[in-house]
Write a structure and sequence with these properties.
The protein is an all-beta fold. The chain is built from no helices and 11 strands. Strands 2, 4, 5, 6, 9, 10 and 11 form a 7-stranded mixed beta sheet that branches. Strands 1-3-8-7 form a 4-stranded antiparallel beta sheet, with no helix packed on it. The radius of gyration is 13 Å and the shape is globular. The termini are far apart.
């Protein structure tokens, strides 16, 4: 079981930026997959971005070009830099990790380790 702790959420105006952090209890250098997901009120959880063990990244179309996922293996931490935030980005953001699977599909339900989430609110 990988313990994940998210931080960095908050309230920001449209067009602003936030950086989310996810601290992992295991070595992120050897973690097959780490990802960010979000769930807005009344909506299903959706994938936002993922980063594989080798550093390759994938993004949801809705955030491509605005969000950047990265990891610092020395700190066992994964980040999500969010720029040009829109009101539609308002959601609870969750970090996930898995040693075997790596997908943004179906809200990442196949991924086995999840954090408690951090709230992001974007207002105009």
């Amino acid at each position: 079981q990988v313990h994940l702790v998210e931080s960095g959420g908050g309230s920001v105006q449209v067009g602003g930026s936030l950086r989310l952090s996810c601290a992992a209890s295991e070595d992120t250098a050897t973690m097959f997959c780490m990802g960010w997901f979000r769930q807005a009120p009344g909506k299903e959880r959706e994938g936002v971005a993922r980063i594989r063990e080798d550093g390759t990244t994938t993004y949801a179309d809705s955030v491509e070009g605005r969000f950047t996922i990265s990891k610092d293996n020395a700190k066992n931490t994964v980040y999500l830099q969010m720029n040009s935030l829109e009101s539609e980005d308002t959601a609870m953001y969750y970090c996930a990790a898995d040693h075997q699977w790596c997908t943004l599909d179906e809200g990442g339900k196949i991924l086995r380790n999840w954090g408690q989430g951090t709230q992001v609110t974007v207002s105009s």
